[in-house]
Amino acid sequence: MNPSKPLYFRHRFPSEIISHCVWLYFRFSLSYRDIEEMMAERGVVVTYETIRNWSKKFGGIYAKRMRSRSKKPNDQWHLDEVYLSINGKTHYLWRAVDQDGEVLDVLGQPRRNKRAAKKFFLKLLKRLQYVPRLIITDKLGSYAAAKAEIMPQIKHTQNKGANNRAENSHQPTRERERQMRRFKSPGHAQRFLATYGVIASFFRPGRHLLSAKNYREIMHRRFTEWSEIVDSGYITQ
């Protein structure tokens, strides 16, 4: 058996403060210093370096718990890739969302060829454990070539106009990239965006599609679920 210990073992701040700082960082375009100042205004003295460590340690844990509790995504996948400049070199962020805009997964890669598309498809299938009914992409030929080998029976629509949902999902990433003055390395981008995509999209339920009453009800349920996710539990060592 793998040993385990309480999630907040040896942390002198309570879980409410730790989780709130992590939530602020991944939900809004705020720097660690911004959050340090916001907490100071509330009488909580915590350094930006501590907030950085909390985000690095607990962000991925929270995101993993959120994925495990989420319902099965819809069967229509929207896929797109966008370039990132990291240390002067071009990398590509591959992203998949369902028709409701929920982020399914992201993967940073140095190429956008057939091999890169296959790697992303396999990552999606392994994590989601089901095949989609339809995938929608732009006209990049790598998608069709990879799909023909991995999911030949799945319907595939290649239309840039039909893929606005995936393209729009990149906008918050661009905002964070500017706020963070670009990502420091491919690993840094992958770790941050994998967590950011889950937490940020969870608290963006498509407000423009909902009445005010329904929006408040959904947000109340999501904040309740967030409290359950971050409140307690153990971490396997």
TrEMBL record:
Involved in the transposition of the insertion sequence. It comes from Solimicrobium silvestre. This is Transposase. It comes from the Bacteria. One of its GO terms (biological process) is DNA recombination. Pfam families: DDE_Tnp_IS240. Residues 157-171 have a biased composition (Polar residues). Residues 157-185 are annotated as: Disordered. InterPro entries: DDE_dom (IPR032874), IS_Transposase (IPR052183), RNaseH-like_sf (IPR012337), RNaseH_sf (IPR036397), Transpos_IS6 (IPR047930). Keywords: DNA recombination, DNA-binding, Transposition. Residues 75-202 form the DDE domain. GO terms for molecular function: DNA binding. NCBIfam families: transpos_IS6.
